[in-house]
Amino acid sequence: MTVIIKSEKQPAQLSVAPAKGLQVIAATFGGVIVTEKIRELIQDDDSMTFKMNQMVHYLAPDPLPNWVKALTILYRFDDGPLSLFNATEQHSGSVQISRATAPTMAIQQLEAGLKQGPFADVEILAVVYGKKRIQTPSVLADLARFFADEEQRGQIRMVNSFFKEDTWPNTWKSWTIFFKFTDSKRIQCVTGLENGALELPWSRRD
Q1: Could you tell me the pTM of the whole model?
Q2: What is the CA 36 to chain-centroid distance, rounded?
Q3: What residues contact 73, with CB distance under 8 A and at least 6 apart?
């Protein structure tokens, strides 16, 4: 039997930050939004340096005790393209995010968001499940459909079968979705845990 864990958290309503320097748009850790704490890591030279094996202490309390967690950060420099960082606590060494940071397994520059057919008013900017970015077109289209339907009253069960793969076997995974409505400047973020339900209303306000 699959248990649906309903989240009581509203999606993050993310204000448009001044377009100067390193901007952390949103960040999640183990199914919890941690944007403000990650912004505190930004240094005067518009960079961040941290160690993944220490983040559970910095971001205490532990949102998922006894499970390895992933940190996901959506960021940009000035008005430049969005980039996505995603890594687990098992990531070795120090992580540096700066203007000079090249793409790696953990850092990707994002292309334009998915805008498809009748759901062209929604952009799915990035989806992360466990330790992997999800780019399967049918999954992104299902999410765009869900957010676009203002009368939506159902839910999406966030399980391996929905994402079409198990990105991290034998681990209780978190998921994060970054999206926006094309008539709004606001990027929204929602996160939760595997077996949870995506079912909250979404704000279309600027």
Answers
A1: 0.86
A2: 14
A3: 24, 26, 27, 38, 84, 85, 86, 97
At 65-74, the pLDDT tens digits run: 999 999 999 9
Q: What is the DSSP string of the chain?
A: -PPPEE--PPPEE-----SSSEEEEEEEETTEE-HHHHHTT--TTS-EEEEGGGHHHHTPSPSSTTS--EEEEEEEETT---EEEEEETT--SEEEESTTPPP-SSEEE--PPB--GGGTTEEEEEEEETTEE---HHHHHHHHHHHH-TT----EE-SHHHHTS-SSTTS--EEEEEEEETT-S--EEEEEETTEEE--------
Give 151-161 pLDDT, tens digit per residue: 666 789 999 99
Rg (CA), the chain: 16
Cβ–Cβ < 8 Å for 178, 14: no
State the number of CA atoms in the 13 A half-sphere of 48 facing the CB: 21
Structure tokens at 190: 């929602």
Length of the chain: 206
| pLDDT above 80: residue 4 | no
